[in-house]
Amino acid sequence: MTPESEANRADLGKDPDRVSRMFDQVAAGYDRTNSAMTVGNDALWRAATTRAVAPKRGERILDLGAGTASSSASFAASGAEVVAADFSPGMLAEGKRRHGHLPNLSFVQADATNLPFEDNEFDAVSMSYALRNVQDPKKALRELYRVTKPGGRLVINEFSTPPSALVRGFYRFYNSQVLPRVARVAGTNGGAYDYLNESIRDWPDQRRLAAWIREAGWSNVAYRNLSFGMVALHRATKPAKSSGS
Which residues bind S-adenosyl-L-methionine per the record (predicted)? Predict the structure, then answer.
């Protein structure tokens, strides 16, 4: 690992500037590395997220922690107006390079805990593998609630805890021993993927995250496991008669 890579490696303190710089550094190879380390499952998880969001023409959708905007582009294919928001300018620049030609997709640099949007602005909001990187995830869930219209939808796709002890053991071994090596072979900062393993290991399980979502005010909270629980897809709605914040 180079001194620059080490300096830009985030830790579980999740300092926003440091996390942002780390993602800036890996932006160019991010999608390639994700595909390699998930053995192509990232495309299946993205498709599941798009089905859960169920974007429709005429809707306004926020994809927070959008990264290189792969999910945003998938949402935009429906004809919905999609905002790809991320705190990493490097990731947003890569997203614009790849998907900036889409007329119904816009890009905004944003802090998940202090979103630059009005109350009740979006029909649906989504985060994929990004809530885990926020220093105060509970505050981010409240911000997502604030900017969602009454009756609107929340979809969170995040790495999680496999219920099976056997799968959990394999998952931990893969994340700690294999994943950083795959990242380095793919030409990406392996230190960033050391952080990924640490952040996954430290992240709450499905039930606890569901509890956080309820605490933020969301209703109809549910989740389903993908890939034996290595990833979990959480869904919720904002109560239709909510006053907003």
Answer: 68, 86, 111-112, 128
